[in-house]
Specification:
Layout (H helix, E strand, L loop, with lengths): L1 E3 L7 E4 L6 H12 L2 E4 L18 H4 L4 E2 L12 H16 L5 E5 L2 H8 L2 E2 L6 H8 L3 H11 L3 H4 L5 H14 L3 H9 L6 E7 L1 H18 L1 H11 L27 H9 L4 H25 L3 E6 L5 H11 L16
Parallel strand pairs: 2-5, 2-7, 3-4, 3-5, 7-8
Antiparallel strand pairs: 1-6
Helix pairs in contact: 1-14, 3-4, 6-8, 10-13, 12-13
Length: 335
């Protein structure tokens, strides 16, 4: 069940949870092997919120070519299909120079759109989405589990957007969405990829510290400015906003936006907003780790607190010695 097959091109995938150090390791690796970085982080595709989405700094991006950063408008939306359409020409462009494309990010579904192809799932239906929006989140979960009991193990039931999309698939196809996805997930193509990971306490400390750094660097002002530029009043209570819908996420879905909105509205203190951002990011990292551990094909590189990007790069080159040679690429090679 694929609407697009494996992207059969020489690519090195560098994945892992947020704050694991992917960006700095990718930069060091690219410098060492003469590679170029291709973004696979859902929110770094968008222009804006550079601090909130933890984009590489301009100085870092000037050291080696970076692709697929700031390519979408802030009020645009993106899904795995669109990401694949953006990524393929960027990857081919890098390969045309006989350089390794280093695909870096933690958006598992976007990565899988390249390694496994795309699941053949139906597009959204506006009328059905309107109908589902009339239900409460609890009712949507109950209806999903009635139609697809196995959804309890493959859909994060606390995430209303994912629940709504899974329910939409069930209703549109008349089949359990878990069954449709299983055929796609069981495909195990071969590819070159590593997952950076850290011990939990180390990773959580890095996450907590990064949120504090964002605050000090001006992320509150950054969020306020982009909300105002998009014509979105930053002051309405996030709790009064409509529930998330199953459409592809936009930049304003990034972790930190709603938490900072709550602070700007006076619903919480700054310390509470910081705690909420840290907690949401830790939960996201946990989901990312679960996703990539489930994907066969990634070599796990566990970094210690004292591990620097050069150390990680050496580990990667030892694990993947082919990276020291130009990638084998024929321009006529098709997916």
């Amino acid at each position: 069940m694929h609407s697009g097959c494996v992207l059969n091109l020489p690519i090195f995938y560098l994945c892992g949870p947020t704050a694991s150090g992917k960006s700095s390791v990718a930069l060091a690796l690219a410098q060492q092997i003469g590679g170029e970085i291709v973004n696979a982080d859902a929110f770094q595709l968008f222009r804006g919120l550079d601090l909130c989405t933890a984009k590489p700094l301009p100085a870092e991006r000037s050291e080696v070519p970076h692709h697929l950063f700031d390519v979408l408008d802030a009020n645009d939306a993106c899904d795995a299909q669109r990401f694949r359409e953006l990524a393929e020409p960027a990857i081919r462009d890098v390969l045309s120079r006989q350089r390794w494309p280093i695909l870096v990010g933690g958006s598992g579904l976007y990565v899988k759109a390249l390694t496994h192809g795309l699941a053949n799932l139906p597009k959204g239906d506006a009328a059905l989405r309107t109908e589902l929006a009339q239900m409460s989140p609890e009712e949507r979960v109950a209806e999903l589990l009635r139609l697809d009991p196995a959804a309890a193990s493959n859909v994060p039931l606390s995430n209303d957007r994912y629940v709504s999309r899974a329910l939409e698939i069930c209703r549109l196809t008349g089949q359990p969405q878990s069954q449709l996805r299983q055929q796609w997930q069981q495909n195990q193509p071969r590819f070159l990829g590593a997952m950076l990971t850290r011990e939990r306490n180390d990773l959580y400390q890095r996450i907590n510290a990064r949120v504090l750094q964002m605050i000090e660097a001006g992320v509150i002002e950054e969020v306020r400015d982009i909300l105002e530029s998009l014509g979105t009043d930053p002051s309405p209570s996030p709790s009064s906003l409509p529930p998330p819908d199953p459409r592809p996420p936009s930049l304003l879905s990034a972790i930190g936006v709603r938490e900072i909105q709550a602070f700007l509205h006076g619903e919480c203190s700054l310390d509470q907003a910081i705690d909420a951002m840290q907690q949401a990011t830790r939960r996201y990292a946990k989901r990312q780790i679960t996703w990539f551990r489930r994907e066969q094909g990634f070599q796990t590189i566990c970094l210690a607190p004292e591990s620097n990007p050069d150390f990680a790069t050496q580990r990667l080159i030892e694990t993947f010695p082919c990276l020291c040679r130009p990638p084998q690429f024929a321009p006529s090679l098709s997916i």
